Each structure stands twice: as structure tokens, then as C-alpha cells.
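Repro case for the chain-ordering regression, as requested:
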Amino acid sequence: MPESRNRVWLNGRLLSPEDAAVPIAAHGVLYGDGLFETVRVYAGHPFRLDRHLERMLAGARVLGLDLVWGPQALATAVCDTVAGCGLREAAVRITALRGVGPPGPDIAECGEAIVFITARAYAGYAERIYREGARSVIASTLQSERSPLCHVKSVSYLNHVLARTEARQAGADEALLLNSRGELAEGSVSNVFARFGDRLVTPPPESGCLPGIARREVIELAPGLGLQVQETPLMLSEFLDADEALLTNSLMEVAPLVTVGAHAIGGGIPGKAAVDCREAYLGRVAESSAEA
Amino acid sequence: MPESRNRVWLNGRLLSPEDAAVPIAAHGVLYGDGLFETVRVYAGHPFRLDRHLERMLAGARVLGLDLVWGPQALATAVCDTVAGCGLREAAVRITALRGVGPPGPDIAECGEAIVFITARAYAGYAERIYREGARSVIASTLQSERSPLCHVKSVSYLNHVLARTEARQAGADEALLLNSRGELAEGSVSNVFARFGDRLVTPPPESGCLPGIARREVIELAPGLGLQVQETPLMLSEFLDADEALLTNSLMEVAPLVTVGAHAIGGGIPGKAAVDCREAYLGRVAESSAEA
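-- result from build under test --
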């Protein structure tokens, strides 16, 4: 048996990727009406899968989308997909799209949701990010902090795609989005933290951030590292004055952020909290795998 | 030959709808990264197709998306699709999705755009809308007027899907979106006008509205009907005091709007400008078909 054979889970069946397609009449395709989650698998164990599925379910309630498969069935499907791909270190994406319906953005007559799960070999972010720190720009596009969709990881992701494109064009690793009040909201694919002395500050949901799973992990871990966590709005000017800054997401885990445009944070050198938090994070990963 | 046989145009080929699917790895599917247009076909002639394609091209520039097919090729494809379906009175949707790419919202390595065109028999909106007027609610979700995406008809449409769902749940025909300053921006599938005496006011692009094709038509037609058009921000309170209100889109053409929640506009009865504008609009349709 080959070590890595690619399989996609689609509505309950494991398929070859080339057979995994969705009908063009699915509202997920026509109107970006759907949800996704990205989960890191360490040594065969999906980390915090329960929390990812919980968030997806919360998003489904906002969208009025019946996911068809319950959390237990989806968790099994994730493991089947990872095993089907012959992977141990992986990144998994779970996507749920609103099903086929009549034209127009009315959801009432849409058929069953289309759910698919993909896995790919993933050994971690580029080491450079941890060693040198990530570089960022401020996106020209804003986060709409008063939209309920801020808190939902939806496939209507284009605003963040545009932000990310700006980062790439500037040769940066990440784009930071401000909200309409000028507060820092989040990165295009990450949450943001700033350390001031022993205070670790992160934007609250009201600033327009996604409730990140890695963000929550850091919030839980930080007190044990002598850091006092505050979910408080952060104006960009305050953020730039931080002693150090951190980015979190489920694939990046915890990484130092050292520049915003031409401005260096914490002297442009990765700080200690980033190192400590990542170490603690990986400790949690190890514990979680041992428990499983 | 049967009168109506359904055909979908997908990347240059006419297919049966059941064969029209897109790969799950297309970024259009994964990240709502794509564009669409809805065009009305009258007696076999797509109305203002040039303007729809112009808007799609403008959107493609914002997204950095190469549509692959030029306006002339797409125009031909629209006609082929309509003819392939055996239709004369139709609604056509043109969709362009960013192609297959590696996971993550980076666009650099995505393959060719996926373009598809669908047509369906369409004889017009429900007559009730013109006779009695449309009923609306104010959406709880906002329009983010400072996003460049306001002016792009993208498939990241979920904010408007949520707004529309609110309207349907309230038994209304349309949801109106306000921007972060409390100005009226647009409807979930329409643009909005308000008449005050002989002034016809519509939110400017800066209020966060899509540059609607039917909106433009009404702006061009109104002076000939003795109406002075102003693109000026409209606070909700001002809007509610209008003598009458109108909705426009390419399928609805021009329709009276008579209520916003429990509030009646213009006594809750369709106004004369709505009737005049629609008549003039249909005159343009007739001219345009005669020219073709």
C-alpha cells in the first residue's frame, strides 16, 4: 500500500480527489453560503477537534444550516479521511456548503448541505516565522465588527482573501484588519495578541475577531506562564507600542509578529511570550495526544 | 426538439446540468472568491449584457482574477446558453470562480478561473410586487461601506443571504441594509430610490451600494420623466419620510416599495414614479431589442 494516497470525504464517502466535485447549483458555490474549519493533526490525533466542531455548529446556527452529520459522525469522518490519506502529521479542512437550491439567495428550498473533508501532509509552518518573526501589513480592507459573520468561519472569505493578497504583494506574511473604529480586529488567517509587561492583550469578539481555537488555547495557557490576559480593544497606535506581538492559528500555533509595515514591534525581535506560549501550546498538544 | 432542454455552459462547453460541477479545491468554492452577474433576457435579447460584463470585468480587476474569456466570448456564450435551453424569456447567471489552488487563501498559485453560465425560464417578478408594492425590513446585518467589495458582485454573498433570510422570516419581500453610519446602502438583491417631490434620491456608491445595472438605467431615464436625480446619502429617518420609494434590479426592473417594517412609505400605496420609471425601463428594453 502506498504511504500517501489522497482521499476526500464527501457526504459520507471516501473518494479520489478528482471525483470530488460539487454541483454548480449548490448555494455554497453560488453565494458563499457555508462554513469551514482547519484542524491540525499531530501524530494522527486531530487537536481540539471538539472545539472546531463546536464552532462550526455555532456557525451553522447563525446561518440556519443543518449540517446533516453530527459532531461524532464528523469526528469519525475526519479520522477516516486522515487514515484514508495515510497521514500522521496533517492539516484537515472540514467544509459544509448549503446545498442545491433554486436561483436567488433564498435558503428555504435548498436541499441537504454538502459536507466534505480534505487532508494533506503538514509538518508545520515555515521555521523562519518562529525564528525571525512574522512580518505584517495593515490591510486596506476593514473588518465589519458589527456583522454576526465576524464570529463565523464562513466560506464568504473574500474580504480576507483581498487582505492576504495585499500582504503577499508587500512581501509580508500576514495582513492585519482594523475594524470601523480603528481597533485591531484580527489577521487574515490569524488572531492577534500584544504583550505589555506581563499583560497579554487580545481584541475581544466585539472588536470583530473570529473566536480562534488557538486563540482560546493561548488565553487558557497564559496565566500559567505569569501573563495576565485581557480581552480589550486595541487601537493600532497602542498595538504598535507593545513590548511584543503574537499571532495564533491552528496551523501556525503561536508565532511572534515583529513588524507592521515599516514599524518594528519590540525592537523587531521575537519576544519571550511567543516562545513560552508556543512551548506551552505544544505541551498541550502532547497531553491531548496522550489522553486520546 | 423539445421546447425547453436545460444546458449549462461551463468553460466553453454546453453540458447537461447534472454534469456541471466544480472541483472542491477551487478557491471560488473554498473562499467565496468569485463574481457573478444576473442578466434578464427579453425575447431572446440579453438586456444591457455589455454593462453586466463591464461590471464583472471591473470586479475581476479588484480581485486580480483573470476571467479567461473576454466580453465578446462571454456574450456569445450567454446567447449559446439561452439558445441551448430553448428559451426566449429568461434569467441568465454568469459566474466566474477562482480556480483550483493549494489550501489557504493565497491566490498566486491558483489555476484558471472556472466560468459557468446558466439560464432558466423567467417571465417576470410576481405581479403583486408592482400592483401592491414590496414590503421590506431593515436587516440587522450591516453593509460595510468602506470595503471595496461593496461595489463588486462577488460570490461571498453571505451577509446579504442573512439579510434576505431575515426578510423572509418576517414575511417581507426585501431586506434593506444600512451602513455603519446609519445611511441606507441597498437591498439584499436590489438598489433603492426615494422620491421627494420631483427629486429622486438614491444612495451614492460611498454609502456602500453595488452599482446596479437597473439602478443606472433609472438614473438615466428619470430626467426624461421630470425627475431630478440625486446620488446623496440617505439616513433611514429621511428615507421613511419619502413621498414614495422604489427598488430596482435586473429581474425586478423597477418596483414600488411601500413598507419598511411597520412603517408605510407614501401612505403604503405604490407611487407614480415607480410606474413611470418601469414603463420607461420597458421602453428601453423594447428599443434595445429592436436595435439588436
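Ordering looks correct now. The mean pLDDT of chain A is 96.
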